[in-house]
Amino acid sequence: MTDPMDISLQPIAQVKLVDADVPDTWRAYGSDPAFAASWPGEGPLPGGWYVLEFAVEVLRGAIHAPCLYPDYRRGSVSESDKITLPLEQARKGPHRVRTLVRFHTDLDGLRFDPSVLPAEFRLQRLSLQRLGRWDAARMMLGTLLDRRAVPGRLALVLTMAGDIALGGPRRMADRLYREYTASNDLQVMSDYAIWLDFYDDTSPDGVALAVAELSALTATPTISVIVPVYETAERWLRACLESVLAQAYPHWELCIADDASRSPHVRRVLEEYAARDARVKVAFRPANGHISAASNSALALATGEYVALLDHDDLLHPLALLECARAFDANPRWRMLFTDEDKIDTEGHRSDPYFKSDWNPDLFQSQNCV
User: Fold this and answer.
1) What is the pLDDT of residue 12?
2) 253 vs 314: CA distance, rounded Å
3) How far apart are CA 85 and CA 63, in angstroms?
4) CA distance linking residue 137 with residue 177, whole number of Å
5) Ordered DSSP codes for 91-125
6) Residue 248 confidence class, pLDDT cut points 50, 70, 90
């Protein structure tokens, strides 16, 4: 076993420093970001077994499917030679990576691809340490045994013994390396979660930046939010109402019609919010008339220049009404607009976005864009 050697990285594609004054903090963009890796001294890097070690702190997005491309052919790399790095996780906070890699023969060059998804990350000391074959075998075997129950450990040891008997140490090493690299998995954020992390800033600072744009509006029309309510669970009813009260755009009124709900909590919650904010208006229908009648009862309370439709267990994005007001201000001839939407689960995780197109009359007649 030799001493670890530091590996230097030079960005060559779709990766750049987040801040020129802050070293080792990178932004990977596109689907094929890459660094050229170099080692101390001159000449090829000898082939063999190496421990690759580094620390990475994911600041935004996710590190997904990082890999090495060894250059065995003086200036070219091949997908067939790609070494996928078996990271167990990629999450915010420092994460130390220590894994075994094998180079078939001497290297003329080495490329490090940090991710196939957008990410901002801080990379600390990437190093390679050469191992002898038996040290490499012990490392792989120890890792695999740690991850298995007793019956699985016994089966693995017997398989290794059979490989040595039939094909010698090389056959055993090949099997160990296949098992070792296949036993790791990367837990990764969904593509949409990464998009939200990069482009949907709902932090206090992000909302404050949006609110600062209110002064640029030439008009601030009142938007009447229409909500028909019927037997809504208290948790979701409160969440719906809170999402309106949390709007960055303050020029709204919330027009609610309860469609003769029998559950006592519905009236109690609606009266509570009406007393809490003068912009909340509530009508209690004497008989159930279903969603159209209830919506019309809510509409009768509206005095705003525009009307927005909201279901009783849906949530409004905190910038939703502000973005609508900005769009109307920039397009004074518009009479209506439709917006994007997504799904949210009980834990607050968003998914299944519907990014709607610009005006498309054929699509409008075949899908409910509103």
Assistant:
1) 94
2) 17
3) 11
4) 8
5) -BEEEEEEEEEEESS-BSEEEEE--SS-EEEEEEE
6) very high
